[in-house]
Amino acid sequence: MATTAELLETHDLDSLSVRTVTSATGVSPTALYLHFTDLPELLRAVKKRFFTELRDALTAAAADIADPSERVRALALAYLAYAREHVGQYAVMFHAHRRTDAPSTPAPELVEIGWAAFEPLIDAVGAVLPAAPADEVRETSVELWLALHGRAQLSVAMPWFDLPDETRYVTRLVRQLLVQPT
Q1: Is residue 83 assigned to a domain?
Q2: 39-62 and 108-128 are packed helices; what angle lies between their axes, rounded to 10 degrees?
Q3: Where in this chain does the record put each HTH tetR-type domain (predicted)?
């Protein structure tokens, strides 16, 4: 699976094939099918691994921070650091197939592991907004994630673009999104 992960970081996911994977790993296609029913199952396993790594990185970044707002800020910075330090993995995690056929519904286990990766952020936002209803906490968390994801994507797609300082960006973003009602 490690070789597949490396291939995914350097190849277009839509053009990846069983033959490409097995050639790179030095095994026969039959050997791959002993562990995975097909290429999509292998790709789901790789994505699950990357989302788990992201969750672990976020959890570790906020583990010892008691102040809820500072925890959100630490999680946001950790998210951007993960995206910056694992560009290929990040791209694979959020890859959208560009085929012309109808978009497929993602595998339920990927949806579950994707949300699980963001639980630390949702929990931290909930601690900042303890009186807010659960749907508002989730919506605010998603808005924060959208802003972080956009910045992460822009920094890769347009490295020449002069983005604001990352720490200042996160500080302002957290302050703006987590305004507590009076």
Answers
A1: yes
A2: 10
A3: 1-54
